[in-house]
Amino acid sequence: MQNQIRVLLVDDEDRFCETTSKFLNKKGFDTAIANNAEKALQILKDKKRDVIVLDIKMTGMDGHTALHEIKKTDPDIQVIILTGHGSRYSAMRALVREAFDYLAKPCDVEILASRIQDAYLAKNRGFKFDDKKALDIMIPINNLKSIPADMTLKDAIAVNKGFLAVIDERKMFAGILTHMDIIRAIRPEYISEDGSFNEESSRFSPMFWSGFFSDRVKAISQKKVWEILPESTPVISENANLLEAAHMMARTFGDVLLVKDISKVIGIIRNQDIYSEISSLMNK
Predict the structure, then answer these.
(1) 129 part of a folded domain
(2) pLDDT tens digits along 82-136
(3) What band does 205 get if pLDDT is binned at 50, 70 and 90?
């Protein structure tokens, strides 16, 4: 590495710091260690650092407070949150306070080294990263047509909207009803109970399926919306980048992601929203 990137590891786990610093030094980084946030702040006063890798839960000052103090000292310094005590809540708090990234232990040290380089490039060479986040392309929940959870599927379909916000009896958000949920619901329970159209079901004869579609549509028409809602829908942070959103959607074979802030669902991302971003970038 021609110009050494100066890294400060801030973590009270001595073994982790020793192992990680040795690896980073072999990669060409100039790595210093602080076993608490107070020591890290003192080091930063004495010697400038390019990137800080900061644990959240430490003895004394915690990582969230330390991040705030570090940014007060040097607003442009890049901070990567790396902790085994993290949660989505912790991640979002950190990102709101302008951490460059959030990685959870155990983290592949190669990935850590790569993100340290990215953080350095972002600060010093004007390296451009994807600016858009989930928040930027989502459809706000308040913009969706809402229906009660006890509405029949027949009435829900009559609303004629692609994605419907479902509200329970407590007036709380209960989920998203999609076209695919209704398509899945028409399958007979004994075929769809494992959640997939498998080889066993494909062995039924064409005669078996004949006329069955209309029968199944009639059979589910009076079902309540809550009866066919998925048990869970993938959730992503409002601060997640679009590659993470695309990965989650592909991994879960879904057509919608819920976008959440610290405490609640605030919107959705549909597969066509991600596709639209792909198309837009390809045509630039």
Answers:
(1) no
(2) 876 555 555 555 555 578 887 877 778 888 898 899 889 887 766 555 568 899 9
(3) low
Burial, 69: exposed, middle or buried (Cβ in 10 Å; 0-12, 13-18, 19+)? Answer: middle
Residue whose token pair is 């460059």: 100
Integer Cα distance of 109 and 93 in angstroms: 24
Q: Mean pLDDT, the chain, as a whole number? A: 84
pLDDT digits over 160-169, tens only?
A: 778 999 999 9
CA neighbours within 13 Å on the CB side: how many for 44? Answer: 29
State the Cα–Cα distance between residues 116 and 77, nearest whole angstrom: 12
- CATH at residue 88: 3.40.50.2300
pTM of the model: 0.60
Domain extent for 66: 6-124
CB 62 within 8 Å of CB 55:
no
What's the rounded mean pLDDT across residues 236-257? 87
Would residue 211 count as lying in a domain? yes
Instruction: Specify the length of the chain in residues.
Output: 284
Interstrand relation of 163-167 and 173-178 (parallel, antiparallel or unpaired):
antiparallel
Q: Give me the amino acid identity at 166.
A: V
Buried-exposed string 245-280: b where 16+ CB fall within 10 A, e elsewhere = bbebbeeeebbbbbbbeeeebbbbbbeebbeebeee
Q: Is the dihedral of CA 186, 191, 193, 194 positive or negative?
A: negative
Residues 10 and 95 grouped into a single domain: yes
Strand partners, 124: none
Residue 150's Cβ-side half-sphere holds a number of Cα atoms within 13 Å equal to 4
